[in-house]
Amino acid sequence: MYYNDKTVSFFDGKFLKSKETSISPYSQSLHYGLGIFEGLKAYQTQHGVRIFKPMEHFARMKKTAEALHMKFDYDTAELEKIAYELLERNKLKNAYIRPILIAADNIGLMAGGDTKLFMAAWKWPRYLGDRLLNTCISPYVRISPKETPVMGKITGNYVPNIMASTEAKQRGFDEAIMLDENGCVAQAPGSNIFIEKDGVLITPPLGHIIPGITRATVIDLAKSLKIEVRERIITVEELLEADAAIFTGTATEVAGIASVDGNLLKLPFNKSQCARIAEAYNELVHSVHEPAYTII
Ligand code: PMP
Predict the structure, then answer these.
(1) Ligand 1: distance of its center to the CA of 215 in Å?
(2) Which residues line the pocket of ligand 1, CB cutoff 6 A?
(3) Separation between Cα atoms, residue 281 and residue 96, nearest integer Å
(4) How far away, in angstroms, is 89 Cα from ligand 1 center?
(5) Would you please indicate which residues are annotated as catalytic (active-site) residues?
(6) Ligand 1 centre from 63 Cα, in Å?
(7) 210, 214, 281: which to mutate for ligand 1, most atoms within 8 A of CB?
(8) What is the pLDDT of residue 296?
(9) What's residue 46's pLDDT?
(10) Residue with CA nearest ligand 1 atom 5
(11) Residue 101: predicted pLDDT
(12) In the prediction, which pLDDT does 290 show?
């Protein structure tokens, strides 16, 4: 699904066939989860293929690399150029783009060694599909900011998220909702969350969550649609009593939630402000946004 014999990816400074790339079994990323990835999406727009908010994604990756003391020798404009070339070489239009910063061989516990950047792209349907989702509150808790920086996509931080999604699926749900260490609503394993009450959107504040680029986009869209947004702590009771709710993320886009732990949310989704947001997001990503360099 991710690649075939012809797929080209970017690895350690050059473009090469995906099937010819390999990482060392001595990589510190493999042993200890010290790696950083991002997820970007490209869309076919009226004026060509456009990656949505590439600078924001690469800047988050760079900032996370600094926080983890991982060498990151690329600037954001260079990374954007590589991403566009990757799309072009693979003739991809609507695609997901996955860069990952991989640590060199090191079985010790000190960061700071060499790193390699891998970037691949493939066609990927919306991560959680197009249907309204039946969700559950996970017994697995979102990683604490006291453990590692939570603002970036650190590979090792995803183990609890994988546990949460897997456990939710095993119980017959579509996706999990993770609470933070204080028992408040945090996010889904691969998306942020907004609830709606009396026409107001509410989303957990920064602190325990990934500061999603889609989350920020949704906040902006809500403002432009004159929908009030509050960033504040959400209790489990408020989640269960919500009129509507959505997950947001680059791969998820804006996905509607039908139920939490078997409790149906109060409004039919299409009557909610969340539905307006979903529509506006879909329009926005398919509209033109200028790349930082000219596509030839
Ligand atoms: N939280 C987690 C754990 C994620 O992996 C993601 C992205 N898949 C998000 C939130 C959403 O972030 P963004 O909107 O920047 O894609």
Answers:
(1) 9
(2) 39, 153, 161, 187, 190-192, 210, 212-215, 248-251
(3) 17
(4) 26
(5) 153
(6) 15
(7) 210
(8) 43
(9) 86
(10) 190
(11) 98
(12) 61
Give the distance (Å) from ligand 1 centre to CA of residue 196: 20
Q: Which atom of ligand 1 is nearest to the CA of 215?
A: 14
What pLDDT score was predicted for residue 291? 55
Q: Which CATH number fits domain 8-122: 3.30.1380.10, 2.40.50.90, 3.30.70.270, 3.30.470.10?
A: 3.30.470.10
Measured from the Cα of 60, ligand 1's closest atom is 15
Residue nearest to atom 11 of ligand 1 (CA): 249
Class of domain 133-284: alpha beta
Q: Which stretches of the chain drop beneath a pLDDT of 70? A: 289-296
Atom of ligand 1 nearest to the CA of 217: 14
Residue ranges covered by each domain of the chain: 8-122, 133-284
